[in-house]
Every structure is written in C-alpha cells, then in structure tokens.
Amino acid sequence: MAGLGLMTFFALLAGTIGWASPYDPVRIPDGDLAALKLAPPSSSHWLGTDHAGRDLFTRVFFAARVSLFIGAACTAFSLVLGLPLGAAAGYFGGWADQGVSRALDVLLSFPSILLAIAIAASMGAGLGTVVLAVGIVGVPQFARQVRASVLTLREQDFVTASRALGAGHGRILFLDILPNALGPIIVLATLGVGTSILMAAGLSFIGLGVEAGTPEWGLMLREGYRDRTLSPWPALFSGLAISLSVLGFNLFGDGLRDALDPRSTEVR
Questions:
Q1: What is the spatial distance between Cα 151 and Cα 91, in angstroms, rounded to a whole number?
Q2: CA–CA separation, 18 vs 232, rounded Å?
Q3: In a domain, 29, yes or no
Q4: % of the chain at pLDDT higher than 90
Q5: CB under 8 Å to 12, separation ≥6 — which residues?
Q6: Which CATH number covers residue 161?
Q7: How far apart (Å, rounded) are the C-alpha atoms in residues 191 and 73?
Q8: Per-residue pLDDT reduced to its tens digit, 25-84
Q9: pLDDT tens for residues 106-132?
Q10: If both were cysteines, with which of 80, 87, 190, 245 could 253 make a disulfide (CB 3.0 to 4.6 Å apart)?
C-alpha cells in the first residue's frame, strides 16, 4: 500500500501540474534572471529554482510525465519481445529453446547499464533511443521468467486435457498456459518500471538520454550536479524524485508478489 501510495502521488501530481502551477516547466522566465537563478526554496518557489530560473516544483513533477512514460514504455517493449520468445522456448523446447536461451545468455553476459550505454551511444540521444536501449536490456528477464513458467505449466493436467480434446499449439499456449503464468509476469513488469526509470535516468545523467532541455529527472540531476556547489536543491529534489518513484514501484511489486503467490501466504 505504501508503494501504491507513492505511485499514485507521482501520477496525480504529474497529471495536474500543468494547470495547478503558474510556471512554465520549459520556458526561461522573464525578469531579473540573476535573482531567479538557483534560488533556495521559498513561498513563491516551493523547491527553489534551477540554473535558468525555472520553478523546480513545476519541473520535477512535470518531469514525472516523461520519466513514468519512459518506464512504462521500456517495460512494454521488453514484455512484447520477451513474452513470445520465452513462451516459444518453454513450450516447444528442443532447437527453439536452445536458440533462444543462447541468445539470452549473450545479452546477459554484458552488464545491463553498459549494454544500454553501447546501444544509446550508437544511436544518439533521444526519447526513442532511451526506450529502445533500456527495453532491449530488459528482454532477457521477461523471456527467462516466461520460459520458466511455461516449462512448469505445460506438464499440468489441464494442458494434457486440452491436447486430448484436439486443441492446437496456439490455443494451448495463449489460452491455457499464458493466462496461468500472468502472476509472476505482472510482478516482474511492475518491478521493471522502476528499474527502467532508474536506468533511463542514468543514461540522461551521462548525456545519452533525452534531448537537452527536456524535463526529465536524470537530465535535471545532471544539471543540478553541475551547480551543486552554488545550490544543492536542483540535484537534491530530482534525485529524491527518482529514489521515491523507484521505491514505490519496488514496494508495490513486492506486495503483488506476496498477494499473487499462494505459497507466500501464511496458514492461520
């Protein structure tokens, strides 16, 4: 419930910040920029301002739109690729299992962040690059989880009964096996959103993420780190947003795992 509360908090503020705040998250404000730059928290700027005089409260929660979208898009990309690969490997076995497993082993042989950096560096900065790089890195986790679930379920009695009734491979796999494997996949997807947000922020921090000027937590952390000796607020609040959002998804994923796994329920 704590994780769900954090997720709801960021989602609500990200959705309402556009009309709730009088400040623009991107445009440099008019007026005395020297007085507005890196101002500390005050009644007019609750979290202070950044190096361009923009309101940090507005930018942090407007950036939640970008970061949450990146996390969801990367996870969806990983799931779309990993689910059919893992399902085919687990259900058919043989050469299909060997081919998919060896390909996944190759991807897993590289550290995740280094593989994402290599993909992003070869394509250039951009939102699409971040989704592709982080999404590819997440494919092995989903494929291996789906494969393990399918390997267990394909020998169950209800699958044997479907075969005896003449059901084809497609019906058995997509209508009988995969619906019963959704529990661990949902948990992994929830945890994957937090991991994707963190990895995407890392790419933006080293200059391989979203384009400059985009309100995104990793890029804001990079800008704040550069000005940390003059004002700690930009780096502090953008880093805190990353930490709390990832913590929220991790807590919610752990809660889902406990709720969906009957073996974790204590018998009273």
A1: 6
A2: 25
A3: no
A4: 52
A5: none
A6: 1.10.3720.10
A7: 13
A8: 888 887 767 778 888 888 888 898 998 889 999 999 999 999 999 999 999 999 999 999
A9: 999 989 999 999 999 998 888 999 999
A10: 190
Domain containing residue 228? 2-17+55-262
| 247 inside domain | yes
Taking CA atoms, 208 is separated from 59, 91, 102, 118, 256, in Å, by: 20, 38, 29, 10, 33
112 membership: H or E segment, kind and range: helix 112-123
105, 192 Cβ separation under 8 angstroms: no
Amino acid at the residue 244: L
Q: What is the pLDDT of residues 138-185, one digit of tens each?
A: 999 999 999 999 998 888 898 889 888 888 888 888 888 988 888 889
248 versus 212: the higher-pLDDT residue is: 248
**205 within domain boundaries:** yes
Please report whether residue 162 resides in a domain.
yes
Q: What type of residue sits at position 111? A: P
* Number of independent structural domains in the chain: 1
